[in-house]
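To the team - PBG complex, inputs and output below.
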Amino acid sequence: MELLQRPRRLRGNSAIRAMVRETRISPASLMYPLFVKEGENIREEIPSMPGQYRFSLDRLPEKLYELRDAGVGSVMLFGIPEHKDEVGSGAYACDGIVQKALQKAKKEVPDLYYVTDVCMCEYTSHGHCGVLHGHDVDNDPTVELLAQTALSHVQAGSDMVAPSDMMDGRVLAIRNKLDQNGFTNIPIMSYAVKYASAFYGPFREAAGSAPSFGDRKSYQMDFHNSREGLKEALMDVAEGADIVMVKPAMSFLDMVAKVRDIVQVPVAAYSVSGEYAMVKAAARNGWVDEDRIVGEMAVSCFRAGAQIYITYYAELIARLIAEGKIG
Ligand code: PBG
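Output:
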């Protein structure tokens, strides 16, 4: 056969495959979501996310050391408060669970980078991501509380805030609030393209944040839409977002690629709880090879154009990179 192009020439052995590899990843790009809760001596496994735990403050450092030693670049903290109320006051209390966790974490393990999720659903008695007006989340008063929440996180030591609520105008409000208080250097990573998704199911069990009525479709995006996601990403950048996120990751890689093409800021992809749970369940049954599946999921996000990958599998991925299996 006369063939001028034989793509297999570049796949002949591992040396040449490594030479022409287009996507290289580093554990520094991995962000690990971590649940903290009130109480003592707690390290409880999340039933729908085997291998993932909720930690009380005294048990938090052990996990942080593990992550740091694995080379994982950053942690994203989620709080589970003892008490919830209508207005989610635990979210912006200076002695709230996330605020206390930050103080402890920054003191004990200062060489990790700490990001905090800014939202109200873990703190409201009704489980919605803001204050209610009738049965709907009231946008503008919620935005003010989100800005207060972000400020309280930064005052407690957060290195970066990540609003996940999907209210309109919250990035600008947070930017203004941080700037007015002298925190001009703290970046905002917005959950810009966040879909209303069944993939969040296990997280809501983990954080006890399922809405007590209705759903989140009046603020999170309709998964049929793509152009609307680009609008959200561009709006957030215009409001001052330093990084924009697409979430979930696996079924939304088209959005990672498209967003990456139209913005000049870094893009993050969040492989959410349902993605983790599905892989874990199949792996536990011996139906898939967990390491290889996780490696492909991770690399595909970077290949699609993400610079940051938020994943419950961060430590495993760091190990796969260290062992030369991916990256
Ligand atoms: C808070 C928030 C959620 C997730 C991240 N931040 C839940 C939701 O929107 O219902 C989901 C993360 C995951 O599923 O891993 N609003």
